Amino acid sequence: MTRCALGIDIGATNTRIAVVDDQGNILESQHLPSNMAAGAPFFEEVGRRAAALARRHKAVAMGAGTAGQIHRATGKYLPGLYPQAPWVGVPLRDILAQTAELPAFVDNDCKIHAYAELKVGAGRGRRDFISLTLGTGLGGGIIAGGRLVHGAKGIAGHMGHISIDPQGPPCPCGNRGCLELYASGTAVARLASRAYGRELTSPEVFQRARDGEEKALAVLEEMATALGRGLGAMANMFNPELFVLGGSIMQWYPLLEAAARRGFRASAMTELQDTPIVISPLAGEGGVIGAALYALDQLAGGNV
């Protein structure tokens, strides 16, 4: 008998709630604007909307992937990069479970994306790979031995905070020269604004590069080379079967691929330079699909 669960993807801008069956098919979904700054009342509203969908489809559990850091044991938001944020300490798992009256399981959104790749995406049938999500920032999830790597507190996988330049700009995480500062949408906008002498958004830069504008192409060369060097460092540490790249920036990957591969070959050990780098087939669906399947597997007692 097919079972279904709710998958919730809480992003910085938008939140999506979907009903997903145990094969990863989306049966129904809805969106609402994110308002994490409102704290607990926003998450209660997400729970109420989820409850209505759950009743309609007889969902048996709920999973949520969220921006920010979540303590695996407590389901509460950790200070992470923004220790004064109003969501710090909010018990997301308990709020969702109590509001929707369903078992709830929560984790970081990029780890949830990695789980979706493992179950129904580019990592299906693989046991060791790294999933990266490139958008405004750069997040990741690590699959080792067919399972998510969580770490002691549940916050493993922040690949965007590998330092590639110890003399580089400061990062909110407390480090300097983090990969995210060079290989993300925010990084593209920062590098381009410096090159052009005025403020540009990352979509503007990608469009200018697509049209062949030399300054924009040079910015993307720098960004993609940094991404490749970061991938090389990850390859040297983890020896994955493959890298899976997802997120909004991947629509522009043809403009990035050559430089990213050059950067990768420059930093990966010789034996690892043939590690495949593939694009996620899940587009924008990985968050809700991964969250629902994560919940179903945990409900069944799976060790994820």
Description:
A hairpin with a 3-residue loop joins strand 1 (4-10) and strand 2. This protein has helices spanning 40-57, 92-100, 109-120, 185-196, 202-210, 214-238, 253-267, 286-299, and strands at 4-10, 14-21, 26-33, 62-66, 104-108, 129-134, 138-144, 147-148, 242-246, 277-279. It contains eight helices and ten strands. The strands form two sheets. The chain has a five-stranded mixed beta sheet with strand order 3-2-1-4-5, with helices on both faces. A five-stranded mixed beta sheet has the order 8-7-6-9-10, with helices on both faces. The chain is an alpha/beta fold. It is globular and about 55 Å long. The protein has two domains: 4-109 and 284-299, ATPase, nucleotide binding domain (Nucleotidyltransferase, domain 5); 122-281, ATPase, nucleotide binding domain (Nucleotidyltransferase, domain 5, 2-Layer Sandwich). Helix 5 packs across helix 6 (214-238).
Topology summary:
Blueprint: E1 4-10, E2 14-21, E3 26-33, H1 40-57, E4 62-66, H2 92-100, E5 104-108, H3 109-120, E6 129-134, E7 138-144, E8 147-148, H4 185-196, H5 202-210, H6 214-238, E9 242-246, H7 253-267, E10 277-279, H8 286-299
Parallel strand pairs: 1-4, 4-5, 6-9, 9-10
Antiparallel strand pairs: 1-2, 2-3, 6-7, 7-8
